[in-house]
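Troubleshooting entry. The earlier prediction with D-malate gave an output that would not parse, so I re-checked the input for stray whitespace and re-submitted. Clean input:
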Amino acid sequence: MRYLVLVPDNLNRDGLDVLRAVEQFEVYAPGKMTREETLARIPDAHALIVRSDTRVDAALLEHAANLKVVVRAGVGVDNIDLAACTERKIVVMNTPEANTISTAEHTIGLMLALARHIPQADRSLREGRWERNKFVGTQLSGKTLGIIGFGRVGHAVAERAKALGMMVLAFDPFVPERLARRMAMLTSLEQVLAEADVLSLHAVTTDETRGLINKETIAYMKDGVLIVNTARGALINSADLAEALRSGKVAGAALDVYEVEPPPPDHPLIGLDNVIHTPHLGASTYEAQVQVGVEAAEAVRKALLEGRYDNVRNREVLDGDENGD
Ligand code: MLT
C-alpha cells in the first residue's frame, strides 16, 4: 500500500528527508499551502503534518476521507479540532520534546531583555542618543521567578533561572510535588502571583487558563512585576494588561505570542514603551526545527507502517489498542 503524506506548512528539510526515504510514502510538501490548496489535496491524504498555521477544523476534515493521522510539528494543538478528529477516528499526535530548550532559552532571553531594557536602549542609541540613566535595569539574581504551568518548558526555564541565581515558585495543578521539588517550590496560584518579581507563563490554553492574567490576578501581583509570555496569547487579557502597564503596576512585559497571530495593528499592547515583542519565535531555532521536523516525520512513519503511536493527544481513538503511548 502507498500512503500520501501531506505537509501544508513549512517543515524542516531533514524531516522531509525522513519521509521521502520511505518507499511506501508519497510526500506532497510544496511549502506553505493556502487553504484552497490544502482542501484540494486532503481527500487523498493518509497523514497530515502541520505546524501552527494550518487550521485542521471540521470543515477541512469533512473532505479527509482517507486521513489516519495528524501530527502537529510542535507542541500546541490549538489549531486542531481534537473532537472532530476523534469523531473520525483520526489519531492526533504532537512533538512535545523538540521545542523545549529553544522556547526556554527564548524566555530567558526576553526576561533579561526586559530587566535591562535592551531593545529600548538599542533603539535609543540607533536614534543618536546616549541615555545611560534612563535605562537603569533590574538584576535578576536574588529575585523570585513565578512560573505558571510547570511542564517541560516551565522546568527548563526554572533550571536556567536557578543558574542565574533566581528563586523559583511554580503553580501547576497537574504536576505532582515530587516532580517539581528539584527545580521549584510548587505552590498556589495566589502565592506565585503575590511573590513573583518576574512572572513567566507556560500553561496551555483551556477554559480555565484563558484570560488568566487579568485585572483581578494583576491586583495580587507585586508593584513593578515583569511578565513574560512565550506560551499562548489567550492566557492574557490584553486590555487589562495594557492598563496595568500604563499605570506602572506592571513595569514591563515581553510577549512572543498573541491571541490572534499576527496581532492586528490596533492591539492594545502594541506601541507601549514598556512592552517587548517577538513574532512567536520561541521554537524558531535551527536545532528545534530540525528536531520538530524529524520527530513529526518519525511519528507518521511509526503510525502508518508499524501501528505505533507516541504523544497521542486524543487517546480515546486508540482505546483498546496496546500500541499507543
Ligand atoms: C508550539 O506550540 O510548538 C510552539 O508554540 C511553536 C509553534 O507554534 O510552532
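This one parsed fine. The first strand starts at residue 3 and ends at 6.
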